[in-house]
Amino acid sequence: MAGWSEKKRNSPSLRVISSFVWWLQRATKMHVVANKLQLTLAILKPDCMACPHIISEIRRIMLENEFWLVRTKMVKLSREQAEEFYSVHQEKFFYNRLVTFMCSGPIGVHVLAREDAINTWRKLLGPTKVLRTVFEEPTSIRGRFGLTDTRNCAHGSDSEETANKEIQFFFPEIDIDKFREEIRKFLEEKGTMLFNEKSCEHECHN
């Protein structure tokens, strides 16, 4: 009886059905993801960019958590640019320290895409206060690699409105609504996004 079950499991008709079910599940998932696609901005800060092994690990985490890296660039901010980007914190006590740090070396900037991208990325980062994070969420990115509240490894947009503004700051050539719609349409048509390690971006393949 066991032999019969084994033959039945390996029969061509069952393999065809299994393949169809896998395709249907994937197509359904991609349709859901396409309709709920969200963009966020991630920044790898100067302390992180000084350590290649940390960069590699964070990018591995991005990919493992099904983010698409749809835009990537390395930037060296001027003080004026850093002041503008963090202008929302201008009245805070840490503003000058943060600005000085963020223009002290190159940063890695990524536009990330997936369902619920903003909350997912911020959850992976952990709280901004590193001492708290080390105890409460030691396996988070900041819990593992953060040094201080300023040198806390990485940044993530805190809302969709903020994400749109921050993406436009670093990628002014992007029409965000059009860009998001193009990705959604591509995914709904069952296209595949393949990761290019050289450019550190996902590319569309039919």
From TrEMBL:
- Enumerate the Gene Ontology biological process terms: CTP biosynthetic process; GTP biosynthetic process; UTP biosynthetic process
What does UniProt list as catalytic?
A: 155 (pros-phosphohistidine intermediate)
UniProtKB keywords: ATP-binding, Cytoplasm, Kinase, Magnesium, Metal-binding, Nucleotide metabolism, Nucleotide-binding, Transferase
Q: Which SUPFAM superfamilies match?
A: Nucleoside diphosphate kinase, NDK
Q: What is its EC number?
A: 2.7.4.6
Q: Name one Pfam family in it.
A: NDK
Q: Does the keyword Nucleotide-binding apply?
A: yes
- The UniProt annotation places ATP binding at 45, 94, 122, 128, 142, 152
Spell out the reaction equation it catalyses. a 2'-deoxyribonucleoside 5'-diphosphate + ATP = a 2'-deoxyribonucleoside 5'-triphosphate + ADP
UniProt enzyme class:
transferase
Taking every annotated instance into account, which residue ranges of this chain make up the domain Nucleoside diphosphate kinase-like?
A: 37-178
Q: Which PROSITE patterns match?
A: NDPK (PS00469), NDPK_LIKE (PS51374)
User: Quick check: keyword Metal-binding in the entry?
Assistant: yes
- GO molecular function annotations of the record: ATP binding; metal ion binding; nucleoside diphosphate kinase activity
Task: Write out the similarity annotation.
Answer: Belongs to the NDK family.
**Name of the featured protein:** Nucleoside diphosphate kinase
- Organism of origin is Octopus sinensis (East Asian common octopus)
The taxonomy runs: Eukaryota, Metazoa, Spiralia, Lophotrochozoa, Mollusca
Its gene is: LOC115216739
